[in-house]
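Tutorial handout. Part one gives the primary structure; part two gives the three-dimensional structure as tokens.
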Amino acid sequence: MEVTEWCIPNPGAKKLTFSAAVCALIVVASATSWGQTSQPKVYRDGPQWVEEFSGFAPLSHVLRVMMSVGAIHLEGGGQEQISYTVKKRCVRSTEEAARKIFDQFRVFSARKADATLIQGDWLGGRDLNDLISDIFVQVPRSVDAVAVNAHEGSITVRAIRAKLDAETTAGNIELDQIAGAVKAHTSGGFITAGSLGGDAQLRSGAGNVQAQAIAGRATLWTAGGLVSLGSARWCSLETLAGNVAVQHCVGDLRAVSGGGSIDIGDIGGDVFAQTGGGRIRLNSSRGRVLASTGGGAVELHKLSSGAQVDSGVGAISVEFAGSPKTFSDSSLRTASGDVIIYMADSLPITVHAASDMTRGSGIMSDFPQIRITSEGGNYGPKSMFAEGTLNGGGPVLKVRTTIGQIEFHRSK
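Part two.
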């Protein structure tokens, strides 16, 4: 079936319902090679009735797929046409009753200028009964941009060369092997991504957001789940409630959690890590590190540059492994907890450290250049201080704990 006009949704409707006046403009011409659809096939599959048919949509560089009911599945291929298959399912006692339900969900295709639309809409009012639908679309390599809206259904896209914009109100989104830039948003579902070849913005209003490899800039955000990333060129990960995990970032990293833990692998640039109440762990960073937590431990390894660390309640452990050329001023502070510092012998550092109310040994050091003093008696709070310069002095390292002990060790 060839559609010569767009079939436009009614702007006043919350769902993708068709305006009868606009749909009246549809002109059905003689079938063309891209407009043909197969005769619908209805058959029984267990307790369900199934209607299935296939068709072709006009080829263009922009493809839009919009479904008011059910899931959307897109996959790239070597074919030169946009093809699709629709499967509808429902439970009814007779085939005649099932066909009445199937007839209420129509799928149209059309082209205007250089954009192709494939749209499915429920025409039966508010009551969707038990209709389940899936559309499977084959996307040619010549398509440059794809926009997908599944309303409340799930979205699956894989192996396409085009850039992608995908949105659903309540469904999950699964992505893999997409060469172009990606924008994906779900208000209530999960987002799972494999390999993405460009920049990616992945956002969920309530679910987890997870990606394996993003070649460009990665922006992952969720209001209510965990955020995890394998690798990207530049990384921004944020969750209002869950945990954050990232394995590798070529450039800078921004990781924020409202109250979960932050687990970071190897970072090629600067690191900003902040959580309202969880722990922070970092394997290595070539840039400066700013880490803060309202109530957890902080563990930072193999830092090439300086660090600024704040913990409301929790221990701090930091390894400075940089060279004299890369090390910079640093500050480590916790209200309640021990602070342990590992330093390379070659670093030129000026140390200022204080423990307001020490416990245990107070302040310990493997470096004789660091002078340790104390104030207070044996029967009251005791404060301890450490001052000194290593290798002639250099960038300042400030260490402070209100209640806890401080240790300076040579790097292992």
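Part three, for discussion. The longest helix spans residues 95-102. Residues 1-36 have pLDDT under 50 and may be disordered.
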